[in-house]
Specification:
The protein is mainly alpha-helical and 211 residues long. Helices cover 60% and strands 6% of the residues.
Length: 211
Amino acid sequence: MAKKRGDALELAVLGLLNESPMHGYELRKRVTALLGWGRVLSYGSLYPCLRQMQYDGLLTEDTTAPEAGARSSRRGKVVYKLTAEGKERFATLVSAAGPSSWEDENFGVHFAFFGSTSSENRLRILEGRRSRLEERLEGVRTSLARSRERLDSYTLELQRHGQESVEREVRWLTELIDSERVHRPQPRASVDTTQASNSTAAIPHGADNRE
């Protein structure tokens, strides 16, 4: 049985390798960018994850030849790429639209791979994220109203900043949701073949040749 990994880290690694194979240094930089500011990914976190994913059959590694002119003792770079099982695992994770996908630690990674999932999943994640933030916003406003008189000006300003940040994200999410709904593929109108057949049958043979 596969060992449990952090959902955000696993999805980030699978998603990036689904785009193209890459070596560990490049992968670490790209994953760190996806995880967001303040969450620097160490090699001590990345490589155990890669080893476990390799053990689970989700990825393989190739060693590229050293560059021309390099010392003979220098090893080539290890390049990681997804297996067929890894691509299936990515498809499963990126299509997940449950509560964990709109939490702080996971939402940004899911959003980065929105192009690989359906409009229905995108809407569910965006609406779930907005609902979660609206709950948080209500809590911040209530707390601020109750403690306003007891807070010094700096603490009060910090709380206002937090409130404004959440409000901005809610507005941004609302714009994305509205845009997604406008551009959402519409189901094709079904053709009633029975009715069409009956209409054709009701026309007498040769009627179209009558004067």
